[in-house]
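Researcher: Going back to the complex we discussed earlier. I've cleaned up the inputs and rechecked each line, so this should be the final set. Can you rerun the prediction on the complete assembly and write out the structure?
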Amino acid sequence: MSQEVFNKVQQAVNEKFPGAIESAELTFNFPAFVIKKEFIHQVLEFLKTDEEQNFHFLTDLTGFQTADEKQLGVIYHLHNMIKNHRVRIKTFFDINKPEIPTATDLWDGANWMERETFDFYGVKFKGHPNLKRILNMDEMDIHPLRKEFPLEDQTREDKDDKMFGR
Amino acid sequence: MSKKENKNITAEAIEEKEYSILNLGPTHPATHGIFQNVLKMDGEIIHEATPTVGYIHRAFEKLAERRPYNQITPITDRLNYCSSPINNMGWHMTVEKLINAEIPKRVQYMRVIVMELARIADHLICNSVIGVDTGAMTGFLYIFQWREKIYDIYESICGARLTTNIGRIGGFEREWSPKTWELINDFVKNYPKALTEFTNLLERNKIFMDRTINCGPISAEMALNYSFTGPNLRAAGVDYDVRVATPYSSYEDFDFIIPVGTSGDTYDRFMVRQEEMWQSLKIIEQAIKNMPKEGGFHADVPDFYLPPKEEVYNNMEALIYHFKIVMGETDVPKGEIYHSVEGGNGELGYYLVSDGGRTPYRLHFRRPCFIYYQAYPEMIKGGMLSDAIITMSSMNVIAGELDA
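Model: Rerun complete. Updated structure for the full complex:
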């Protein structure tokens, strides 16, 4: 079934927005599409409002950082509850210019999820009504989930703990 | 209660009106958790609400990026701590999907029993607390001992009561003892009586109905727009349940119904949770009845499941596996996974990206509480302060899940 969804969505998006899909894959029975940043809002709007696609439910929205630390991403999980189809939409952009149109005009539920993504990755959602930190304190000046802030290294040697040494 | 509008008040008069500011929280006994709401009040009517969350944020997603897969289970306990086994099982199933493990039917049925017990514990707290907030302490005190009995079952399975860390990747840590089965059978036999008593106390109680009907309602369209899931969405009239939509852990074998409400108010949410407890009992009964005799208590995934101690001492392979698991040096395949389970509050999703190493590259928890709590200001606007309190408890906002 997911293969069918995959083909359908790919075809529909390709017809409507030629060149918008950067890559597409079907992993673990889950259709996933990487959409170019310029098209992301239009594609989301199309997938939500188009009667055939009808991905009316925003399951999840979250941030991502690529392994080369040069790009940030935003990942949307959409759901068509009537046909029980799910699709994952991804978009990537330069880490130095992390700007992307908001999805709050499509789903009210995107509001806090985008605030969380801004909080942890520093993605600036253009047009968001209230883009403030949500879980971390307002005074914080970093975006902690970025890979440039590693957690404590387990192999460090300056800690001396003879009883429970590691 | 419904809001009454006074037609005589003109626009100018409203602008001149002075509102009073009320801080509800962060540590208020009525909020049942640590989150703050700054309410702009007109007398006792709420004009505007600004929620602040994040008081118990513990950076789980960051922590998970350094931890081996089996060490992430205790983190998931602390999301929705009223039903931690569901979170644990959801995480195990996510990893099992990634490593493509085949889980024996018997383990799946055992998991269903534990998850449904957890759902009962979760709903039971929520519903009895709605009672407390409307002034009915009795139901809460009586029904709470049944949560203790569920915790006894957890304890006999895994040794812990609240933050359970129950099960392992691949199955359960040990075979359930006869004592466990005895406790489960006792629970299934005796709980309906207690639940009936609780039902009689509240469900058709005139005071309770007057207090909760039409309080904090939400329409189905708005609930979907705000990405509601779980009992709160079903109370609004949408029959979406992950257990039925995308069955996991053999839920397709069980016969149960999804209760739905109509108006999405506090009473509907209460009733949906009540009915779900009955359905959970039905599922547990079926699971006990149809439990396969054969199949053991874990799958054959030596990379993730600790070998028995005798083998570790006598067998080289077992020793290697033991060492690798304990030191957290097991690599997993590359992959990108979204797996969701029906948690106590709704669709609990795990978005996991693995780069082939010993820890996840990225792990995101889709926490239903966090997502639906943002509709709270919208739901209480124009209502009374006391309605806001029961709306919050009927939404079952759990601080641990809210803040992750």
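Model: Worth noting: The CA atoms of residues 115 and 131 of chain A lie 6 Å apart.
Researcher: Good, that matches what I expected from the previous run.
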